[in-house]
Amino acid sequence: MLPKVSFIIPALNRERTIGVCLESIANQDYPNLEIVIVDGGSLDSTVEIASEYTSKIFFDNGPLGCARQTGANNSTGEILGIFDSDIILPSPNWLRKAVQQFNKNKNIGVVWPVNKAPQNASIVSRCYFNFWNKRLEKTHGALPGGNSLVLRKAYDEVNGFNVQLHFGEDMDLMHRIVRHGFQVAIFNYPIIHDSMHTLKEFTRKQVWGASSLLSIIDEKTKAKMLDACMTWKIMGENNTSLASRHILKEAFLRHILIGLEGMIEGLTKDRDYSWLVIPLLLGIRTLIYGSFFVSGFFRKKIGLRA
Q1: What is the pLDDT of residues 49-77, one digit of tens each?
Q2: C-alpha span between 12 and 14 (Å, rounded)
Q3: Were 272 and a residue from 96, 199, 240, 266 both cysteine, which residue would form a disulfide, CB within 3.0 to 4.6 Å?
Q4: How many domains does the chain have?
Q5: CA distance 254 to 96
Q6: Contact 139, 255 (CB under 8 A)
Q7: Which residues contact 17 (CB under 8 A, 6 or more apart)?
Q8: What's the predicted TM-score (pTM) here?
Q9: Domain housing 292
Protein backbone atom coordinates (compact mmCIF):
# COMPACT_ATOMS: atom_id res chain seq x y z
CA MET A 1 0.00 0.00 0.00
CA LEU A 2 1.22 3.47 -0.85
CA PRO A 3 2.21 5.59 2.18
CA LYS A 4 -0.13 8.47 2.89
CA VAL A 5 1.21 11.90 1.92
CA SER A 6 0.00 15.04 3.70
CA PHE A 7 0.59 18.28 1.80
CA ILE A 8 0.95 21.06 4.37
CA ILE A 9 0.54 24.47 2.76
CA PRO A 10 0.50 27.80 4.60
CA ALA A 11 -1.11 30.68 2.74
CA LEU A 12 -1.78 34.38 3.12
CA ASN A 13 -3.60 36.29 0.38
CA ARG A 14 -2.54 33.79 -2.28
CA GLU A 15 -5.62 33.72 -4.47
CA ARG A 16 -3.46 34.14 -7.60
CA THR A 17 -1.52 30.90 -7.13
CA ILE A 18 -3.27 28.59 -4.69
CA GLY A 19 -5.92 27.29 -7.10
CA VAL A 20 -3.38 26.06 -9.66
CA CYS A 21 -1.22 24.66 -6.86
CA LEU A 22 -4.02 22.63 -5.30
CA GLU A 23 -5.35 21.53 -8.68
CA SER A 24 -1.95 20.02 -9.52
CA ILE A 25 -1.99 18.11 -6.22
CA ALA A 26 -5.59 16.93 -6.62
CA ASN A 27 -4.77 15.64 -10.11
CA GLN A 28 -2.02 13.31 -8.88
CA ASP A 29 -2.28 9.65 -9.78
CA TYR A 30 -1.84 8.88 -6.10
CA PRO A 31 -4.93 7.82 -4.13
CA ASN A 32 -3.53 8.15 -0.63
CA LEU A 33 -3.02 11.85 0.00
CA GLU A 34 -4.52 14.76 1.90
CA ILE A 35 -4.23 18.54 1.67
CA VAL A 36 -3.91 20.63 4.83
CA ILE A 37 -4.15 24.42 4.49
CA VAL A 38 -3.05 26.84 7.21
CA ASP A 39 -4.31 30.34 6.51
CA GLY A 40 -2.65 33.33 8.11
CA GLY A 41 -5.67 35.64 7.92
CA SER A 42 -6.21 36.13 4.19
CA LEU A 43 -8.39 39.04 3.10
CA ASP A 44 -8.87 37.77 -0.44
CA SER A 45 -10.50 34.57 -1.73
CA THR A 46 -7.66 32.23 -0.68
CA VAL A 47 -9.76 30.27 1.83
CA GLU A 48 -12.73 30.07 -0.51
CA ILE A 49 -10.56 28.61 -3.28
CA ALA A 50 -8.83 26.19 -0.89
CA SER A 51 -12.18 24.91 0.39
CA GLU A 52 -12.89 23.52 -3.09
CA TYR A 53 -10.02 21.05 -2.57
CA THR A 54 -9.99 20.23 1.15
CA SER A 55 -11.99 20.53 4.34
CA LYS A 56 -8.79 20.60 6.40
CA ILE A 57 -8.33 24.35 6.68
CA PHE A 58 -6.86 25.81 9.86
CA PHE A 59 -5.98 29.33 10.94
CA ASP A 60 -2.69 30.48 12.42
CA ASN A 61 -1.33 34.01 12.01
CA GLY A 62 1.89 33.35 13.92
CA PRO A 63 5.37 32.87 12.44
CA LEU A 64 5.69 30.52 9.48
CA GLY A 65 7.30 27.89 11.68
CA CYS A 66 4.22 27.95 13.89
CA ALA A 67 1.84 27.79 10.91
CA ARG A 68 3.64 24.81 9.39
CA GLN A 69 3.66 23.08 12.78
CA THR A 70 -0.10 23.62 13.05
CA GLY A 71 -0.51 21.94 9.68
CA ALA A 72 1.70 19.01 10.65
CA ASN A 73 -0.15 18.56 13.94
CA ASN A 74 -3.42 18.26 12.05
CA SER A 75 -2.17 15.85 9.40
CA THR A 76 -2.09 12.06 9.36
CA GLY A 77 0.36 11.20 6.59
CA GLU A 78 3.46 9.04 6.89
CA ILE A 79 5.13 11.56 4.58
CA LEU A 80 4.77 15.34 4.91
CA GLY A 81 4.80 17.56 1.84
CA ILE A 82 6.26 20.82 3.17
CA PHE A 83 5.17 23.01 0.27
CA ASP A 84 4.37 26.65 -0.51
CA SER A 85 1.19 27.84 -2.20
CA ASP A 86 2.98 28.88 -5.42
CA ILE A 87 4.22 25.38 -6.31
CA ILE A 88 2.82 23.41 -9.24
CA LEU A 89 3.41 19.66 -9.60
CA PRO A 90 4.35 19.15 -13.26
CA SER A 91 2.42 15.96 -14.08
CA PRO A 92 -0.05 13.48 -12.52
CA ASN A 93 2.71 10.90 -11.89
CA TRP A 94 5.08 13.30 -10.12
CA LEU A 95 4.16 12.33 -6.55
CA ARG A 96 4.30 8.59 -7.21
CA LYS A 97 7.81 8.96 -8.64
CA ALA A 98 8.88 11.26 -5.80
CA VAL A 99 7.71 8.87 -3.08
CA GLN A 100 9.68 6.06 -4.76
CA GLN A 101 12.87 7.98 -3.91
CA PHE A 102 12.45 6.98 -0.26
CA ASN A 103 12.97 3.35 -1.30
CA LYS A 104 16.50 3.97 -2.55
CA ASN A 105 17.97 4.00 0.94
CA LYS A 106 16.46 3.18 4.32
CA ASN A 107 18.12 6.28 5.80
CA ILE A 108 16.50 8.78 3.41
CA GLY A 109 14.41 11.24 5.40
CA VAL A 110 13.97 14.01 2.83
CA VAL A 111 13.22 14.07 -0.90
CA TRP A 112 14.15 17.49 -2.30
CA PRO A 113 13.06 18.24 -5.87
CA VAL A 114 14.78 20.76 -8.09
CA ASN A 115 12.78 23.87 -9.05
CA LYS A 116 12.15 25.58 -12.34
CA ALA A 117 10.31 28.69 -13.46
CA PRO A 118 6.96 28.44 -15.33
CA GLN A 119 7.13 28.17 -19.09
CA ASN A 120 6.21 31.80 -19.76
CA ALA A 121 8.02 33.23 -16.74
CA SER A 122 9.63 36.64 -16.62
CA ILE A 123 13.35 37.06 -17.26
CA VAL A 124 13.84 37.70 -13.52
CA SER A 125 12.13 34.46 -12.54
CA ARG A 126 14.05 32.43 -15.12
CA CYS A 127 17.35 33.91 -13.98
CA TYR A 128 16.56 33.30 -10.31
CA PHE A 129 15.81 29.59 -10.79
CA ASN A 130 18.70 29.12 -13.23
CA PHE A 131 20.96 30.39 -10.46
CA TRP A 132 19.13 28.27 -7.86
CA ASN A 133 19.82 25.10 -9.82
CA LYS A 134 23.41 26.10 -10.56
CA ARG A 135 23.98 26.56 -6.80
CA LEU A 136 22.52 23.10 -6.18
CA GLU A 137 24.80 21.62 -8.85
CA LYS A 138 27.89 23.27 -7.35
CA THR A 139 27.13 22.60 -3.67
CA HIS A 140 28.20 19.10 -2.66
CA GLY A 141 25.90 17.71 0.02
CA ALA A 142 23.53 20.67 -0.26
CA LEU A 143 21.19 21.16 2.67
CA PRO A 144 17.55 20.96 1.52
CA GLY A 145 15.05 23.71 2.11
CA GLY A 146 11.32 24.01 1.63
CA ASN A 147 9.10 22.36 -0.98
CA SER A 148 10.32 18.94 0.07
CA LEU A 149 8.83 15.61 1.07
CA VAL A 150 9.78 14.70 4.64
CA LEU A 151 9.39 11.36 6.36
CA ARG A 152 7.10 11.74 9.38
CA LYS A 153 9.51 9.66 11.43
CA ALA A 154 12.34 12.10 10.70
CA TYR A 155 10.10 15.07 11.45
CA ASP A 156 8.97 13.64 14.79
CA GLU A 157 12.46 12.64 15.91
CA VAL A 158 13.65 16.26 15.71
CA ASN A 159 10.43 17.64 17.28
CA GLY A 160 9.17 19.42 14.20
CA PHE A 161 9.49 23.10 13.34
CA ASN A 162 10.94 25.88 15.42
CA VAL A 163 7.71 27.79 15.99
CA GLN A 164 9.60 31.03 16.68
CA LEU A 165 11.04 31.30 13.16
CA HIS A 166 9.30 33.27 10.42
CA PHE A 167 12.04 32.82 7.81
CA GLY A 168 14.32 29.85 7.24
CA GLU A 169 12.07 27.60 9.32
CA ASP A 170 12.26 24.95 6.60
CA MET A 171 16.07 25.14 6.41
CA ASP A 172 16.24 24.87 10.19
CA LEU A 173 14.08 21.74 10.14
CA MET A 174 16.19 20.12 7.42
CA HIS A 175 19.40 21.07 9.25
CA ARG A 176 18.25 19.17 12.33
CA ILE A 177 16.97 16.19 10.32
CA VAL A 178 20.31 15.76 8.54
CA ARG A 179 22.21 16.28 11.79
CA HIS A 180 20.07 13.52 13.29
CA GLY A 181 21.45 11.05 10.74
CA PHE A 182 18.90 11.07 7.94
CA GLN A 183 19.93 11.45 4.31
CA VAL A 184 18.61 13.60 1.46
CA ALA A 185 17.61 12.41 -2.00
CA ILE A 186 17.77 15.09 -4.71
CA PHE A 187 14.87 14.50 -7.11
CA ASN A 188 15.63 15.72 -10.64
CA TYR A 189 12.02 15.83 -11.80
CA PRO A 190 11.48 19.56 -11.25
CA ILE A 191 8.49 21.18 -9.65
CA ILE A 192 7.30 24.49 -11.10
CA HIS A 193 7.80 27.44 -8.77
CA ASP A 194 5.61 30.40 -9.73
CA SER A 195 7.62 33.03 -7.91
CA MET A 196 10.15 35.89 -8.25
CA HIS A 197 8.38 37.54 -11.18
CA THR A 198 9.83 41.03 -10.75
CA LEU A 199 12.81 42.79 -9.24
CA LYS A 200 10.40 44.32 -6.73
CA GLU A 201 9.27 40.86 -5.55
CA PHE A 202 12.86 39.63 -5.38
CA THR A 203 13.95 42.70 -3.40
CA ARG A 204 11.03 42.39 -1.01
CA LYS A 205 11.96 38.79 -0.22
CA GLN A 206 15.59 39.73 0.44
CA VAL A 207 14.47 42.45 2.87
CA TRP A 208 12.14 39.98 4.60
CA GLY A 209 14.88 37.36 4.89
CA ALA A 210 17.58 39.71 6.12
CA SER A 211 15.36 41.41 8.69
CA SER A 212 14.03 38.06 9.95
CA LEU A 213 17.52 36.61 10.39
CA LEU A 214 18.74 39.80 12.09
CA SER A 215 15.86 39.60 14.57
CA ILE A 216 17.11 36.25 15.94
CA ILE A 217 18.56 37.15 19.34
CA ASP A 218 20.78 34.14 20.03
CA GLU A 219 24.03 34.66 18.10
CA LYS A 220 24.79 30.94 17.63
CA THR A 221 21.31 30.30 16.25
CA LYS A 222 21.62 33.35 14.01
CA ALA A 223 24.99 32.15 12.66
CA LYS A 224 23.66 28.62 12.01
CA MET A 225 20.55 29.93 10.25
CA LEU A 226 22.49 32.42 8.17
CA ASP A 227 25.02 29.77 7.16
CA ALA A 228 22.28 27.31 6.19
CA CYS A 229 20.25 29.85 4.20
CA MET A 230 23.18 31.49 2.43
CA THR A 231 25.49 28.52 1.78
CA TRP A 232 23.09 25.52 1.85
CA LYS A 233 25.66 23.75 4.03
CA ILE A 234 25.63 22.45 7.59
CA MET A 235 27.87 24.44 9.89
CA GLY A 236 30.23 22.30 11.94
CA GLU A 237 29.76 22.35 15.68
CA ASN A 238 33.23 23.86 16.12
CA ASN A 239 32.29 26.79 13.87
CA THR A 240 29.18 28.02 15.68
CA SER A 241 31.03 31.09 16.93
CA LEU A 242 31.66 32.39 13.41
CA ALA A 243 30.50 35.98 13.06
CA SER A 244 27.57 36.62 10.72
CA ARG A 245 29.62 39.11 8.71
CA HIS A 246 32.24 36.42 7.94
CA ILE A 247 29.56 34.01 6.77
CA LEU A 248 28.09 36.72 4.53
CA LYS A 249 31.49 37.48 3.04
CA GLU A 250 32.21 33.84 2.19
CA ALA A 251 28.66 33.24 0.94
CA PHE A 252 28.64 36.20 -1.41
CA LEU A 253 32.08 35.43 -2.80
CA ARG A 254 30.79 31.94 -3.61
CA HIS A 255 27.55 33.37 -5.02
CA ILE A 256 29.50 35.67 -7.32
CA LEU A 257 31.73 32.85 -8.58
CA ILE A 258 28.77 30.53 -9.22
CA GLY A 259 26.80 33.36 -10.80
CA LEU A 260 29.61 34.36 -13.17
CA GLU A 261 30.24 30.75 -14.18
CA GLY A 262 26.53 30.19 -14.73
CA MET A 263 26.21 33.38 -16.77
CA ILE A 264 29.11 32.46 -19.05
CA GLU A 265 27.77 28.92 -19.61
CA GLY A 266 24.18 30.08 -19.97
CA LEU A 267 24.99 32.76 -22.53
CA THR A 268 27.51 30.79 -24.59
CA LYS A 269 26.08 27.25 -24.48
CA ASP A 270 22.36 27.63 -23.83
CA ARG A 271 21.80 31.07 -25.38
CA ASP A 272 19.69 31.84 -22.31
CA TYR A 273 19.78 35.61 -22.01
CA SER A 274 18.00 35.62 -18.66
CA TRP A 275 21.49 35.13 -17.17
CA LEU A 276 22.20 38.79 -17.97
CA VAL A 277 20.11 39.67 -14.92
CA ILE A 278 22.29 37.76 -12.45
CA PRO A 279 24.68 40.67 -11.65
CA LEU A 280 21.65 42.74 -10.69
CA LEU A 281 20.13 40.02 -8.48
CA LEU A 282 23.42 39.37 -6.70
CA GLY A 283 23.99 43.10 -6.28
CA ILE A 284 20.57 43.58 -4.68
CA ARG A 285 21.05 40.62 -2.34
CA THR A 286 24.54 41.74 -1.32
CA LEU A 287 23.42 45.31 -0.67
CA ILE A 288 20.40 44.34 1.40
CA TYR A 289 21.99 41.65 3.55
CA GLY A 290 25.17 43.67 3.95
CA SER A 291 23.36 46.84 5.02
CA PHE A 292 21.07 44.99 7.44
CA PHE A 293 23.89 43.18 9.19
CA VAL A 294 26.20 46.20 9.26
CA SER A 295 23.43 48.26 10.88
CA GLY A 296 22.77 45.40 13.31
CA PHE A 297 26.45 45.26 14.21
CA PHE A 298 26.56 48.97 15.03
CA ARG A 299 23.29 48.83 16.96
CA LYS A 300 24.75 46.03 19.04
CA LYS A 301 27.93 48.02 19.70
CA ILE A 302 25.93 51.07 20.73
CA GLY A 303 23.76 48.94 22.98
CA LEU A 304 26.81 47.43 24.70
CA ARG A 305 28.28 50.88 25.33
CA ALA A 306 24.99 52.13 26.75
Answers
A1: 999 999 999 999 999 999 999 999 999 99
A2: 5
A3: 266
A4: 1
A5: 35
A6: no
A7: 85, 86, 194
A8: 0.89
A9: 5-305
